[in-house]
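$ ./design --mode recover --in tokens.txt
reading tokens...
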């Protein structure tokens, strides 16, 4: 017969075997709860902690005297603040005339009578019966409390006792931490003290040592040619003046064909002559032309141009205009300032149009304020008519027929017997206890029924 653990016998899923000590602490006498981590990863002894490479924090205080001058104090220059002129508002002058207080809403709105809306909700009818109501719910009638014995606690006894001395117990950090002395690291920083040399300063540089001055040869001076002006006069005729005769010709006719609109009912196929004739082809990337390295010319640049040296001004005849001579009449009588436009379109006398204001219908009060407002003077009190309530009277409805207490729940409810979990008992019924293993699991086997002889 195969034996089963208490975890396997449980049918409700709420009962488990009490776990004791694991195999590591089985014979040590110390209590340790069962964990998968402690079984797979045992502890190692005599392992020193990793050496800390963090440098020692040493604060070097500055012992010199601190000046009270800041960058802001040294660079700040106060400026004269000129007060801005204050804007003086203009004096308010009330407008003259009367204001029209009538609105478009008052003129166009026509009031009408509103009737009350009829209530669509049906009347509420309450049926009250005289029979006594059974107040025992179905839960109380069907539920029966179980007689379950209280299970024993498998919690280990508390082995911790508070110390008698203040801060008597040591922490885990104090037990595991081994203090090591930190050796100061060798500093490779140069000495900040400047050592002044005793040897005088040598001002020779590589340019002064390697530079060799060369004596430039003098350039041969070329003789300057003497300018000889021509004896012939300057011809100022151009090709346009010689060839252009200004003949009158006919106007150019338009060669563009007449635009005739062609309409087709057939749908567009999507392929055009341009798409078929002009197929795309790959274009090679443009070649990058390598720029030649700039070589500056040797020697100095002469700033005299050919125009400055060789140009000599000469006299030319003035170009005569080609436009025809205007036959202007020299009238000796004075100019008359009248014209056809001035005679036909004389200036009108116009003045600026004034603002159009409506006359004020409500006159301004002339006497002292009486304390009587427009609402109080025009208000007419009316008697309130109470609205008739359509709610039915809250009168209990009496009936001689007996109360029908049959519900759908009472007719369709089927009582189910709830089985007790065998693991809830100290000793499961129908099982015989065999042994307890090292992990704390209790094993039981089924009791065989007695054989009838």
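writing sequence...
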């Amino acid at each position: 017969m195969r034996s089963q653990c208490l975890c396997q016998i449980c049918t409700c899923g709420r009962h488990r075997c009490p776990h004791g000590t694991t195999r590591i602490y089985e014979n040590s006498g110390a209590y340790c709860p069962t964990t998968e981590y402690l079984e797979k990863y045992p502890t190692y002894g005599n392992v020193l902690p990793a050496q800390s490479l963090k440098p020692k924090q040493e604060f070097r205080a500055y012992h010199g005297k601190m000046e009270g001058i800041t960058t802001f104090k040294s660079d700040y220059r106060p400026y004269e603040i000129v007060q801005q002129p204050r804007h003086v508002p203009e004096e308010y002058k009330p407008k003259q005339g009367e204001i029209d207080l009538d609105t478009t809403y008052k003129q166009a709105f026509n009031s009408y009578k509103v009737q009350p809306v009829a209530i669509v909700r049906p009347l509420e009818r309450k049926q009250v019966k005289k029979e006594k109501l059974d107040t025992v719910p179905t839960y109380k009638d069907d539920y029966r409390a179980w007689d379950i014995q209280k299970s024993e606690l498998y919690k280990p006894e508390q082995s911790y006792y508070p110390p008698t001395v203040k801060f008597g117990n040591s922490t885990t950090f104090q037990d595991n931490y081994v203090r090591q002395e930190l050796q100061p690291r060798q500093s490779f920083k140069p000495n900040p003290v400047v050592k002044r040399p005793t040897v005088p300063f040598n001002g020779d540089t590589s340019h002064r040592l390697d530079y060799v001055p060369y004596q430039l040869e003098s350039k041969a001076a070329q003789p300057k040619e003497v300018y000889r002006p021509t004896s012939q006069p300057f011809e100022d005729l151009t090709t346009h003046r010689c060839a252009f005769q200004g003949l009158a010709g006919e106007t150019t006719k338009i060669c563009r064909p007449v635009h005739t609109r062609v309409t087709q009912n057939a749908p567009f196929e999507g392929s055009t002559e341009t798409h078929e004739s002009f197929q795309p082809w790959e274009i090679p990337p443009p070649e990058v032309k390598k720029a030649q390295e700039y070589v500056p010319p040797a020697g100095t640049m002469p700033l005299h141009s050919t125009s400055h040296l060789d140009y000599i001004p000469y006299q030319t005849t003035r170009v005569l205009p080609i436009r025809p001579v205007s036959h202007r009449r020299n009238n000796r009588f004075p100019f008359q300032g009248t014209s056809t436009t001035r005679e036909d379109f004389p200036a009108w006398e116009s003045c600026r149009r004034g603002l159009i204001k409506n006359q004020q219908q409500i006159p301004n009060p002339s006497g002292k304020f009486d304390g009587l407002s427009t609402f109080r003077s025009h208000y007419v009190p009316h008697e309130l008519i109470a609205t008739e309530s359509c709610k039915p009277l809250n009168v209990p409805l009496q009936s001689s027929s007996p109360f029908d207490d049959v519900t759908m729940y009472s007719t369709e409810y089927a009582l189910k017997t709830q089985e007790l979990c065998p693991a809830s008992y100290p000793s499961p019924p129908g099982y015989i206890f065999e042994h307890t293993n090292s992990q704390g699991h209790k094993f039981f086997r089924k009791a065989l029924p007695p054989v009838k002889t």
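exit 0
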